[in-house]
Amino acid sequence: MNRILRLSEKTAALSKWLSAGCLLVLVVIVIVDVLLRNLGILSLSGVSEAANYLQIGLVYLGLAFAYQDGSFIRMDLLLDRFRGRAERVRSIVIKALSIATVCLMLWFSLKTTLNSYEHSIVSIGVLRVELFIPQAVLCAGLLLFIVQMVLDLVIEICGPRAAPAPVPAVSSS
């Protein structure tokens, strides 16, 4: 179980650092472009387009960290109604359905990415980026997210459970 917990932490850390890297590059290119433009030196073409791609990376590569951190919106009003075994069953079912949903998203995203790659589809913007590149980043983020959710489900299923109440000893006297 400790190995699974460590893998979950490493997956979340990788997700966090990849997302943070996208944010850092995004901030740097925007600041450099604004400075160069305001100094009258030049305007970097394609910054807006690159910023959009970096935002996609920031969001999708950060999903696994956000999940592990508990940063997603929860419906506590509904979730608080479950207790004990019902809570555990609800949690496992919801996690399994969530994994299935994101796997479906990944499947169609991979199909789109492969189609873009096979047909050499490029963006219509200034940068003329091969679209499979940002689409592959999106797929990588979804894959990290799935790994994190599967690890969480395994922890939920195999993790510590409340010990059953001890059966009182029957005296024979």
Automatic annotation (TrEMBL):
Matches recorded under InterPro entries: DctQ, TRAP_DctQ
Alphabetical UniProt keywords: Cell inner membrane, Cell membrane, Membrane, Transmembrane, Transmembrane helix, Transport
Q: Cell inner membrane as a keyword?
A: yes
Give start and end of each Tripartite ATP-independent periplasmic transporters DctQ component domain: 26-154
The record's subcellular location field reads: Cell inner membrane
Instruction: Describe its membrane topology.
Output: Multi-pass membrane protein
Residues that span the membrane, as ranges: 21-44, 50-68, 89-110, 132-151
Lineage: superkingdom: Bacteria
Query: Family assignment?
Result: Belongs to the TRAP transporter small permease family.
Xref: PANTHER family:
2,3-DIKETO-L-GULONATE TRAP TRANSPORTER SMALL PERMEASE PROTEIN YIAM, TRAP TRANSPORTER SMALL PERMEASE PROTEIN
Q: What is this protein called?
A: TRAP transporter small permease
Q: Which organism is it from?
A: Leucobacter albus
